[in-house]
Structure formats: structure tokens, C-alpha cells
Amino acid sequence: MASGSAALLIVLHIFIIGARRVTCLCDNVTSISTQVDLLLAEYDRGAFLVSPVHVKAALDVQHATIDEKTSTVRLLAALYLSWEDKRLSWNATSWGCGKALVSVERLWLPDVGVLSAATAGGIGGDVGLRARLTSDGRVSWVVRLDLVSPLSLTLDAWPRDVHEIIYKFGSRSHTTDELNLTSSDMEHAMVFESGTWELLSVRSTDMTWQRLDVEQQVLVWKLTMRRRAPAHALATMAVLYSCIVLLVAAMLLPPASRPALCATAALTAALWLIAALARLPGSTSAPRAMSLMCAACTCSAAAAAGAALVLRVARCSAPPPHALRVLVTSTSTFCKLGPPEGSNAEWSAWAAAAQLLDHVLLGAILLTLFVVACFTF
Predict the structure, then answer these.
(1) What distance in Å separates the CA atoms of residue 373 and residue 288, rounded to the nearest whole number?
(2) Considering only CA atoms, which of 243, 358, 343 is closest in space to residue 292?
(3) How many CB atoms sit inside 10 A of residue 280's CB?
(4) Where are the beta strands (DSSP E) in 122-240?
(5) What percent of the chain has pLDDT over 90?
(6) What is the pTM of this model?
């Protein structure tokens, strides 16, 4: 039992000494640099690897924001690429180290870039970064990205709108048989969340692209971003509900007392629309809140105009035509037309027709608001 423990201690001692020796050799920059120079002496970076070359890619998003004035999105990210190049393998025991850093200008690099021609920036702006090599021939390279691409804004749910931005990466010169690309998702713990926009998710998918008579592989990353504007949302809902309450209250009043509240509701909605147009960018759709506000403004003005028309009809002194008398008489059987209870006011056919007209106009306004709300949401 004692001999077994002693043997175990000896093995652990040898392992610790070997690990220390490898660490010391890896820390010797001059020795590793000399070994790398010897390894790359006959290395041809222009020669393509044995097909197909399997390249793994992962996108680490660090910052993303939308510029509404120019309808563009800016992405700051790091693209992690890794592949295997057996020409760069070595014996880790003889070197005393199993990893090394090499300038990427000395290595073969996969032809991977942004496929969208409208995207500014891309791969290649940071070629001074070094690639990491391992003794088994695995190459890892981190590419810094600063991309600016156009975005078609859809503001249906403004100020709580969500946008999806799609980035496609691939090779323009190599087919699927030559370059095999695969993507993976990463945890985005370093995303800067300051500003108006919040990054909700980043999802990757692999797809193929048929170009002429060849098939090429494409890596797609979809970014989902949401606007953070609680103050705008609160103010918009408050103004909208205020307009609707004023309009409903005006409808409950007699026509003579209605125009003041209708004008207040229409003016409130109009002022909000003017202020919103000054800060909303051009987009492919109008916000739902703006559609409802336009409907409230228009219906308020229509209610005020309808009240004036009803008063004008009620004060008409000309003899009513026979058709109007028949209409009022037939309608009064299922709709009460007459002066309020306890009123001694003189009631004529024109007054009854004005009351009927008022009911029809109010019903049409309420129906319009209901239809707009249904189609909007």
C-alpha cells in the first residue's frame, strides 16, 4: 500500500515538473518565434487546403444601434473563425509548447465576407490581429467588424417597435465542395445596452445559395432589436385615451353643448400628430398609435360638424316635405323621437328629423372608430 502511494507521488511530481517545463518554454517568446519561423519557412499561404475546408464561425455582438435619420443599423461585433491546417501542426513535446500566435498575413485565410453589397465595412479592416495556432493544426482567428447597413423601418408598433436585421456571410469564390461553413450561437454578455435600442436575441442559421450553376454556403445571423421608449409609450397612450374620453363625453351631450368638447379632442390629437411627425423617421408603415390618433381627430371634427348640421336642421322653418313626415313617423315606431321628458318645447317634424339625423351621425362615428381599431390591431 505504501509502495503504491509512493509511485503515485512520483508520477504527480513528474507531471508537475513537466507542466512547469512546458509553461516555461511557452513563456519563452524568442524560442517560440524561432520555431514558428522555421515552421513557416516552406509554408505557402496562397495554396488552397485539401477540399473541403471546414470552417466554424460564431458572431459575438458587442454593440448594435439603429440610426433613424439615415435608416441604417450599425453593428460592432467579433467574428470568430476556426479551421484546420495540417501544414501548421508540430510536435508539442519537442517544442515544449502546444500553442502559438502568428500574424494572419503569413497564413492562409478563408474567403469569408459580408455578402450584402449595400453594407459598408466588413472583414479585412483588422488584418493586423494575430491568429492562434495549436499543435494539432487548428487555427483560430478573431475578426473585428464595424458594419453599417440599410434598414427598412417598420413602425407599426411604435413606440414599442421591434426590428429584425439580417446579416449574411459567405464566400463569393468557393463552392460548398471547397469551403464548408457552419455557424454557432454565442452568449452575448458584453453587449452595451446604453441608448434607445435593446438587443433581444441573435440567432444563426445555415443555408445554401444557388449562384449560376454552383452551390455556395451562406451563414445567416438574425438580430432582433427593440426600442426602449417607455416615456413615449406612456405619453402616447395618455393622449389617445384623453381624446377618446373627450369624444365619448361630447356624444353624451346634446348637440348645442357638443362642439366645445369635440374641438378640444380634435385639437389635442392634432397637436400630438404635429409633434410626432417632427420626430418620426420615414418608414414603410405608419404607427398604429398614429392611425388611431388620426381617427380620433377626424371623428371629433366630424362630431362637431354633425352637431352644427343637426342644429341647422332643427331650426328649419320651411314646411317639411311629405317624405320627411313619412320617414319620421315610421322611424318613431322603433326609435323614440320627441322632446325630453318634462320639456314643454314645441316639437316639429324638422326637430324629429334632426334628432334622427343626430342618432345616425353618432352611430356612424362610433362604427368608424370601431372599424379603425379592429383593422389597426
Answers:
(1) 9
(2) 243
(3) 17
(4) 130-134, 138-150, 162-170, 179-184, 197-211, 214-227
(5) 37
(6) 0.75
